[in-house]
Every structure is written in structure tokens, then in C-alpha cells.
Amino acid sequence: MKRLTTKAAAAAFSVTFASISGQALAADSAQPIIIPTHNWSSQVVMAYVIGGIFESMGNNVEYVPADSQAVYEAIRNGDVTISHEVWQSSFGGAFYNAMSKGGLIDAGTHSAATLEEMGVPQYVIDDNLCPGLPDWEALKNCPEVFATADSEGKGRWLEGPQSWHGDLMPVRVEALGLGDLYTVKFAGSADAIWAELASAKKEGRGIITFNWTPNFTDAEGFAFIEFPGYTEGCRVADGGDGSCGSPKGWLKKAANYKFPKTHPEAYKTYSKISFSTKDIGQMAALVDVDKMTHQDAATAWLAAHEDVWKPFTQ
Amino acid sequence: MGTNIYEKHPKLAQFGILLVGFFLLIILVSPSDTNVLWRLPPLLAPLPGMINDLAENLMFNWFPVQVYDPDLDDYEQTALLRELTRGFSRGVLFLIELIREVLIGGVKTIVAFTGWEYIRENPWAIWPALPWTVVVGGAALLGYALRGVGLALLAGISLSYISIFGQWEPAMETLSFVLVAAPISILLGLLFGIWSFKSRTVEAVLMPLLNIAQTMPHFSYLVPVTVFFGVGDHAGAIATIIFATPPMIRLTLLGLKKVPVEVVEAGMMSGSNDRQILLNVLVPTARHDILIGVNQVIMQCLAMAVIASFIGAKGLGFNLLLALNGLRIGQALELGICIVLIAVVLDRLSLAWANKQTDYFADLNFVEKHRFGLIFLVIFVVGVVLAFLGGMIFKDGINYFYFIPHNKGITTEYIWQSGVDWMVDNWYAGLQGFNRGLIINVLQPMKRAFLSMPVSATFLLVMGVGYIIGGTRSALIVGGFLLFIALTEWWDRALITAYMTTFSVIVAMIIGLTIGSLCAQNSFASKTILLVCDTFQTFPSFIYLIPVIMLFGVTDTSVLIAVIIYASIPAIRYTVEGIRKVPPHLREAGLMSGVTPLQRWIKIDLPLAFPHIMLGVNQTVIFALFMVIIGAMIGTDDLGQLILKALSDKQGIGNGLMLGLCVAFIGLVVDHLINTWAAQRKAALGFGE
Predict the structure, then answer these.
(1) Do both B107 and B201 map to the same domain?
(2) The pLDDT value given to residue B3
(3) CB 3.0 to 4.6 Å from B654: which of A2, A162, B48, B378, for a disulfide?
């Protein structure tokens, strides 16, 4: 057995180096397209959906779990081929970092309009816990509704990890003049936010968290706070005072720079792929609501929505 | 009077003086950015950038080579190191996939010998999975062959559980990468252990590196691993090897050092050469410690299952994170149980294998010699036939006798989920008072106190304690570690890490001493609690993070509770072991003099077990530091938050490594102080190693 594995390993090496003698191909390479899977449902289902589309075109596909922040470095180095859910405010930084270092390309934008903003669960509005919401001015009157054990009497904004958008929210709290009433706490991961939301919902208590749409929380209802509108240059980084809300965001697709050359057909399709908010919601719901496995959900979605994805391949 | 105390308890008096100096500095030093007594200037701030540039240069520019890319039909310039590390990655990945595809089928191994083109043209060329019944039967047979019916049952039932609960595929994915990482770690550990036993120089170089490797949080080397080796199962395996090898090296060396000179001399007298002495005399005699090393490697490998999935390891860990993100705690729990089961089965099988004696003199015929091979053949045939029958019985697409797909087995998810719901419904309100009181009255003041400590006071305290315990040398060593942290930009964050670690270690030690002492009174209770400790060490801590957040919110309380649960493991373990090691005649002597159990505990058990318990404190600190860093997943503002952030930083490699070193050095300060002190106490009590 031991002899066999050493031989096999040697063979594997020689094979990988031997494959350097291939010839130029007009069609897509048979090398697998490597698609990352992250730790949230819609992304995993969409990974299998896009993988399924590639497979329907005769491509080989491979899935690899990866951290959603670290993946851009992996794409740049060619260890992963694509990333199909680049959220502007959470991953924009990592995406542009990798792009500026070289090796990662922008492969277009989904039609889904995204919003990444602070908000409250729908029941906070329905139960009138803080009258006047979702208008942000209402926050001035009810910090105590959102106070927590460690917020020293102030209301608390539960922001995503600091790596997502740095000090954007603390700056905004100050710029809006809410600094004496509210404090910002950075959660360490999306899981932490979902756990707090679930717990708050059971108690029916007030909570302000960072969240985004399309997301599985859409199903239960989530209201984004209406801050003063976003304008070009209103953020501190762009020279403004930071007292504005988030822009309607984009959801981009990234790819390794070799992808268009190695898999021209697949890349053409990939660059055309554009899912809408509705598509993404359906994919997430199959798992989060119908409790299907991710693969099954992708198969079911592909079977039911050929009209959506077939055109991408033409 | 003062001189009197000084003569009686010189160390105590020294400590008193030290404390006075410490508080004087706190009062006198004014907080200002320019005051070096308050905070040192961040002279090391450019270092992460430099490390980063160095790594990037090595990886992308150093020694450029031209490599032909058939897909691009062009030559591409890459660096030698990159090609070498990627070649190594491919080798590791090939081994993982070979084992994986033997178990659950696939195409990668065939691809390795033919190419993807071949698979595209020959869609039938897929290696089939072994029916799960065959794997279960095989594992049970292996258990029987190595040990007996007990182990056969353990292995068989554990694997059946995994299959029936629909976790077969991820479990085999995890198993295949552990089956590559663990043997490599064990081999590397043996090699380096033997090498450092043979050469003082190697030992001197290796020991500090081991210290760092064992105290550095695993998150901090994930980015370097992905840059050098890529993303995927191989990267997970490599990170796991880095994590699992150090204890093996240490225990091998420890075992070899313990071998009595007489044994080696006896070997020399029988005319053994160097190699024979090593392989036939030294290693077998040191077997006990080496086996503890093997056990540690297996535990570490499975403890890494979740972390490794951050950089591409497939299997239970990834599915666990996915389940937690959907707050499906029941599902995550079932996955966690599978990880523990694999750890237990592998651990017991490897122990049984190592303990098995070969019978060189038995005169066996063909059937007897190949008994187990033949039985396996029978199991294989029966399994395959069953699978075929299954194909006829189950018409709905899933052949339960062949392969139960992921999450298609039975599940107890609902029960666990309702349990968590019930907990939140019933306990949340009651715990809020406690949560608020703890945060306002204890945690926040404690954090403020740590942050208001001038750097000069911290140095005086830590170096002073070092001087009292181990003289000038110790003072300089711990001072050196602190200086490194103080010169980075992250001193304040390090103080927050220190505050959380200190609080959790104090509580974990109280828990450990209480539970440990109680259980140590009885040998059955001792064994049970040690088993519980083993289980919790491999049970992924991520699972209890979620219910804890639901009860206590994204607060320091949540982080600390998670840390305390994890850090209590070594606290309990070392207390039990320490007290069980107290010589029985001393306890009997106490009994004869008519001590009450309480008196015995205070006057006999604790003092004698104290050196060992202090080593437990040492481990508790290291476990606590690890978990404080993972606590960043809940939400902290200490070093851990930055380590997590390094995953997407521009200077990820440099920042990750430097932050990791800061955490390691906090651990090493404590490690040095406790080890020096425990060695002195042991010598004083007369049981030196």
C-alpha cells in the first residue's frame, strides 16, 4: 500500500507537469472551474446554480469552501476561479484590494438592487416600539428601546464586523448628532447578528442591526432605517461629513484574469449571468424556508426556471 | 519588625514592595501619548508591512521561472517558490482525494492519471463509492483485529450513527483529510523529536519555535498558508499539520529523555548499532509518551476541522459553519457529534494498533494468516450485494444500503432546536439582570483598570514577578516578550485580550479546582470526567457560541462564557490528574491521623498536587487565549478582532503573523513564569521529573 501511494504520488506529479504539453483549444478547457462556497444559503445555492449552468454547457466544475473575505486573494492567485456574490459594502474593500494587486477582474453586475443598511425587524414598526420609524429622526426619541446590558443606557447599533466597512457607522452616529444617544457595537460575524435577531424576536424587544437585502430576513420582514439620502462625496472618505445613508448597492461578479481565456464560452455566459432580487430570494427560500439541502435547492431552481438561465448560455 | 517578615518570607515581602511600586506608578504616571512611561512609541509598526512585502516577493518575484500554460497557450512568468509550494500542495491534495474517493467515489484520482479531457470524453469513468455498510464492517473488523469485540462495537456503531444520521459524505471528507494530516504530523513529530534528542543545537533552535507554534492562535497563520499553498483541502491539511505537530515533537523528546541509561546500555551490550538502538530500544521504551503524542495529534486534527474549512477543507467543519449561519443549532450539534465520534474511533484504533504485539513464532496456515483479509472480502461481497438489493427495494432514488446522501438520514434536529428555543424563552429574561450586573460592576471596571495601566507599571509588575520567581534571567525573558508587544501599535488591544483572559482563567480555575477535586475522590468519577474533558476538547466550540449569544447578546459576557467553558477543560483535567497522583500512603497517613475530608483536601491533596495544578493553569491560560481570539467571531475589540480582519487585509500576512506573535507572547510570559515556578516547587517537594 505504501509503495503504491508513493508511486501514485510520483505519477500525479509527472502528470501535472506532463499536462504542460497540451495545445491551444478553441473551446473551453476541461480543467474544472473552481467555485467558492461561503457560509450563507443564497450564496451556496447560487454556487450550485452557476455550477449547474456551467455543467450544462459541458464544463467541469469544482466547489471549494472558502472564507468570504479571504476568497479574493485566492481568486487573484488562481486558486479559485470566480466569486459570484460580491456585496458592495461588505466585500468591496477586499474586492478592490485584490484587483489593485492584479489578477482579479470585474465580470459584471447582477440586476438585483441591493441595500446594506442599519434597520429594525418589521415587528419593531408594527408594534410601534419607536414611533416614527423607519425615519431616522425617530431614533432621537427612543434610545432606551434599543439599550443593552453593555451600552451604558444608550441605544445600541449592532454593526457587522469591522472588516466590512470600518468606522462608517460610528462616524455616521456622530455626524447625525446621535452620539449622546447611541453607541455602535461591532459583531464578529454574520452569525452573531442572526443569533441576536432571533433572540430579540422571541422577546419582541427592540434591536437595530446591520442587514442587507436580498436576504433570508426579507421573508420575516425587515425595515431599513431611512437616513438622509446618499449623495456622491457625502462620506468622510470622499470628503463629506458622513451624515448620509448607504447608497443602493451593487452585487458584482469577480473572476480570475485567466478565466476568459481558458473558458471563453463559460466566461461569456458568466458575464451575462444576472440574477434579480426575486431569483436570489427564491434560491434562499428553498433552503431557509423549505429546508431543502443546497444541492437539491439548486437542482430544483434550475429545473423550474430554465426561462431565466437558458438565455445566459446563448 | 519589617526585617523580621523579610527574613521569614523573603519572597512575600519582595512581592509586597513590588505591588507598592506598581500602584505608585499607576498613580504618578500621567496618561499622554508622548509620555513613554504611559505608552511606548510603536516602533515596530512598519514591521507587518515589511513581512508582507517579503512574503509577496518570495512568492511572486524571487527567482522567476517561465511556465507554459496549455490553457492560455502562452508562457507565464511565476516564481520558483510558488511553483514548488503549489507542487507540494498538489501532492497532498492527491493523497487526500485518493483516500476520499476510495471511500465515497469520485473522478479526481482518475483525472490525475489521465486528465480532465479524458473524463469529458468518457463520462462513465467515475470511481464508485464503497457501500457504507462495507466501510462500517471494515472498521468494526479492524477494531476486532486490533483489540477485540469492544472496539469492534465502538467503531461499528459510531460509523453507523454517522451514516444513518445522513452525515456520511461530509464525515468521509473530513476523515480523508485527517487520514493524511495525522500520519504526516505523527511522522514529522517523531523525526523532529528524535533529531532534537540527538542534537542539542536542534533542540535549542526548535524549543522556542515550538513554544510559539503552540501558543499562536490558528487564525493568524491561515492567510500565510493560503498565500503559499492555495485554498482547498490541502491548505486545510497543511494548517492542521502546523497545528498538530508541535505536541508530537515535544512528547517524543520527553519520552526519549525519560529512557533510563541502563536500557540503552543493555542494547549496546547486545551489539546493536545506532539505528537499532533508536528503533528497537529507544522508541519502544518511550512508547508511553509517544502514544500520548499520537492521541494529541488526533485530537488537534479534529479540533482543526472547523477552522480548516475557512481555507477550503470540505466536510463536517464547513457544513457546521453553514448550519450555524442558518441558526440550525440542532444540525450543527449532530455534525459536532460526528467530529467527536471520528476522533474517539481514530484515537482508540491507533492506540490498539500501537499496543498490539506481533507474534513472530506462530506457525499459521494460509487461512489463519489471511483470516482478516478473507473476512473483509466476505464483508465486501455482502455489502455490494446488499447495495444491489437496495437498488431494487428503494425506488425513490436514494439507495439507503449504498450511500445515504447528506442530510437525508434521520435527524434529531427538531428536539435540539426546541431545546434552544425553550432555553431562550424561559431563561432570557431572568439572565438579563445577571448580565447587566456583571458587565456594569465587574467587566467594564476591570477592562478600564487594565487600560489605565501605564506601560511602565505593567513592565514593573511582570518583570518583578519574573525576578522573584526566576531571578534576573526570568525577568529579562518576560520583559523581552512584553517589549515586543509594547512596541507594536496594538498594546491597548493586547491589554483587552489580557483582561478577558485573566477573568476567564480565574473563573475557569475555580470551576476546575471544584469539579476536579470532587471527581478525583473516586476513580470512576475521575475516568468519567476525563472522558467528558476529551469530548469537549474536540467538540467544536462554535456550536455553543450561538445559544450563548442568544442568551447574552453580542457582549463581553458571551465571549467570556464561551472562553470559560473551553478553558475549564485543562483546569479540570490537571486537577484530577494532580490529586490522583498524590501518593496513597500520604492520604492514608492523613486518614489515620483523623483528618476530615475537607482538612485532607486543604492540607494534603492540594499542596501536593499544586505543581501539577499549576501546569494546568498554564494550559488553562493557553486554552483561554485561543478561545478569546475565536471570541472575535462574537464581537470583541481586542487582538482577535484584528486577526479576523487580517483575513481580508492588504497586509494580511504581516498583520496576521505579528498579531499572532503578540498573542503567543502573552501566553509565553505566563508559560515561562509558571514553568519556572512549578519546576522549583517540584524539586522542593521531592518529585522531580
Answers:
(1) no
(2) 56
(3) B48
A77 neighbourhood in chain B, CB within 8 Å:
227, 230
In this complex, the residue of A73, A94, A261 whose CB is nearest that of residue B72 is A261
Listed ranges B405-419, B512-526, B641-655; the one with the highest mean pLDDT: B512-526
User: What type of residue is B505?
Assistant: V
pLDDT reported for residue A63: 93
Q: Can you give the pLDDT at residue A17?
A: 39
pLDDT of residue B362: 65
Identify which has the larger pLDDT, B436 or B400.
B436
The shortest C-alpha distance from A311 to chain B (Å) reads: 24
Chain B residues inside the 8 Å CB shell of A298 = none
- Prior bond of A214 cis (ω within 30°): yes
> Is the pLDDT assigned to residue A22 strictly greater than 70?
no
Is B114 in the same domain as B195?
no
| Domain membership flag for residue B21 | no
Tell whether B237 is covered by a domain.
yes
Tell me whether residues A66 and B644 touch, CB distance under 8 A.
Answer: no
Residues B97 and B190 in one domain: no
Q: Tell me the C-alpha distance between B259 and B288, whole Å.
A: 11
Domains and CATH numbers, chain A: 31-111+250-313 (3.40.190.10), 115-238 (3.40.190.100)
B104 and B176 together in one domain = no
Q: Determine how β-strand A82-87 pairs with β-strand A104-109.
A: unpaired
8 Å CB contact of B71 and A262: yes
This model of the complex carries an ipTM of 0.84
Residue B631 lies in a domain: yes
pLDDT for res B480: 96
CB contacts, 8 Å: A19 with chain B? 70, 115
Q: Which three cell numbers stand for residue B325?
A: 449561519
Residue of A nearest to B78 (CA): A77
Q: Please write the tens of the pLDDT for every residue from B148-205.
A: 899 999 999 999 999 999 899 999 999 999 999 999 999 999 999 999 998 999 999 9
How far is residue B355 CA from its own chain's centroid? Answer: 25
- Which chain B residues are closer than 8 Å to A73 by Cβ? 223, 226-227, 648, 652
Asked if the structure places residue B17 within a domain, the reply is no
CA distance A81 to B207: 40
Question: Which structural domain, as residue segments, surrounds residue B307?
Answer: 172-327
Cross-strand pairs, A33 = A61
Q: How near does any CA of chain A get to the CA of B147, in Å? A: 22
CB environment B322-339: b (16+ within 10 A), e (fewer): bbbbbbbbbbbbbbbbbb
State the total domains in chain B. 3
Q: What is the value of pTM for the model shown? A: 0.87
- Both B644 and B559 in a single domain? yes
pLDDT at B546 over 70: yes
Last residue of a domain, one of B308, B327, B346: B327
Long-range contacts of B45-49 (CB under 8 A, 24+ apart): B45/B488, B45/B489, B47/B488, B47/B654, B47/B658, B48/B651, B48/B654, B48/B655, B48/B657, B48/B658, B49/B651, B49/B654
Question: How is chain A split among helix, strand and coil, in percent rounded to 5?
Answer: 45, 20, 35
pLDDT of residue A6: 40
According to the model, what pLDDT value does residue B9 have?
A: 76
Closest alpha carbon to B639 in B496, B509, B538: B496
**Looking at B274, B298, B327, which one is the last position of a domain?**
B327
Query: What value does the mean pLDDT of chain A take?
Result: 86
Residue pairs spanning A and B at CB distance below 8 A: 228
| Cα(A87)–Cα(B282) distance, integer angstroms | 58
Interchain CB distance below 8 Å, B550 and A189: no
Q: Do residues A219 and A118 touch, judged by C-beta distance below 8 A?
A: no
Least confident of B307-311, B486-490, B611-615: B611-615
| Co-location of B117 and B178 in the same domain | no
Residue of A nearest to B229 (CA): A79
